[in-house]
Amino acid sequence: MPDFLLSQLLVSVTLIIECGAMQLKNKNYILAALSVSCFFNGFHYLLLEQPTAGYIFLFSSIRFLISIKWKFQWISAASLCVSLIITVSTYIGILSIIGFFATIFITIGSFSKNDRFLRLMMITGGSVWLLHNLLLWTPVGILVEVIFVGSSCIGYYRYYVAHKPSEP
Question: Which residues cross the membrane (predicted)?
């Protein structure tokens, strides 16, 4: 099976998971689902010869699990440093830089104690990953980010616009 086709199959698993992840109310469930989706997405990028995105997503899989238990800002900063080291050591051009910037937003959001802020950072980071995937031209990867950002916006609307919560 060609690497491109296998990559699209792997990212299809990500697509299935992310279709529902941002509709969950419990932030820890969101982060757990994102951890699993990042695992498949990481291998998708490695098959497309995008080591920066691949290793950032594999690391993100672990980072999301860590952020379920601990919300310390120093762990967020350490995670960003690891992502920067990955970016510098696997640098292959503008896509490496775009992927790192997307990761900044998602990392900051995942270590936030505030669900609203988490969702806004996921929308921003997902939008930057969408740009990355458009430039890379990974069709299912593009669809993943369109659905992820769209689902994040719908989830934000459901929980913070249409239904005014008693706590942020």
Answer: 55-72, 84-105
